[in-house]
Design goal:
mainly alpha; 13 helices
Length: 287
């Protein structure tokens, strides 16, 4: 199993801890499991498509259970509309992801960190005043953006959160909408990722199923934290932590670029070439 995943047992344990932490944060704050998990998993060196499959598999249990519990409050018509429009953005995002997947790890960390920082700043700055209905154009923009971000880096939540919070919906209706959309979007994205990158990514779905006890543990730990702390305090802590995570991904990669240092892949390639040259020289001397 570890050979198929191309991961060491320590990396698997670290990935499990990250998933548990991300789910705990989402249960406490109400959003952000992908925002917490994906940048940290990128730091482990796991390919981005595999990370997205892993995170979406783990979050699927949470979202399906949440949608089922709140099914009477779910605004199903907007939820189905969101899925239909998101699929367009999802395909476009997957095109970008197929290009990102071929870049070196430092570049991917830099890109994911920048996206995370922009998302957090947008959620802090944009505070829409709730209204009964929004112009359909806002919905189209939010759903396409959610699909695109989901396809490109797995972070499809923020546009949907901002759009739902712009309505004067009850807390249950807002959460029901988000749970319903995520529970329908996750399997669609996993299927499209499988088509795009091959069936090997499904091994990370298997790993995600193995992490489901950690998902349950994280949910159990996070809910009491959310109940004890004030909502604004929780959001402030969450946004601050997300910005730290973004900085931990962006700063090291940016410093390497600024100093003109070689990436890890370039260094490994240079080492391999030097070894080949040395072996060739030894053979010539022996002859």
């Amino acid at each position: 199993m570890l050979e198929v995943l191309d991961m060491h047992v320590v990396d698997v344990a670290a990935a499990g801890a990250i998933i548990c932490f991300a789910v705990t944060a989402q249960a406490a704050v109400g959003f952000g499991s992908a925002l917490f998990a994906i940048p940290l998993l990128v730091l482990l060196g796991i390919p981005l498509p595999n990370i997205i499959v892993l995170v979406y598999t783990c979050s699927m249990m949470q979202t399906v259970i949440g949608a089922r519990k709140l099914r009477e409050d779910v605004p199903w018509r907007p939820a189905f509309a969101a899925i239909s429009v998101m699929t367009v953005g999802l395909v476009l995002g997957l095109v970008l992801l197929s290009r990102l997947a071929n870049l070196n790890k430092d570049t991917i960390r830099l890109a994911v960190g920048c996206v995370l920082a922009l998302i957090v700043v947008a959620q802090i700055v944009i505070r829409p005043k709730p209204v009964a209905t929004l112009h359909p154009a806002w919905g189209a923009a939010a759903f396409v953006s959610a699909g695109f971000l989901g396809g490109a880096c797995g972070m499809n939540g923020p546009p949907l959160v901002l759009w739902s919070m712009a309505h004067d919906w009850s807390n249950a209706k807002t959460r029901g909408f988000l749970f319903a959309v995520f529970s329908m979007a996750n399997p669609i994205q996993i299927a499209l990722l499988t088509v795009t990158f091959g069936p090997s990514v499904l091994w990370f779905a298997v790993l995600g199923v193995g992490f489901l006890p950690l998902v349950y543990l994280g949910s159990t730990l996070g809910l009491p934290i959310g109940n004890r702390m004030k909502k604004d305090t929780l959001k402030t802590c969450a946004f601050g932590l997300l910005l730290v995570i973004a900085a931990s991904a962006v700063v090291p990669a940016a410093l390497k670029w600024a100093r003109g240092e070689k990436t890890q892949e370039e260094a490994e390639l240079r080492t391999a070439l030097n070894r080949t040259d040395m072996e060739t020289a030894k053979k010539k001397r022996a002859e």
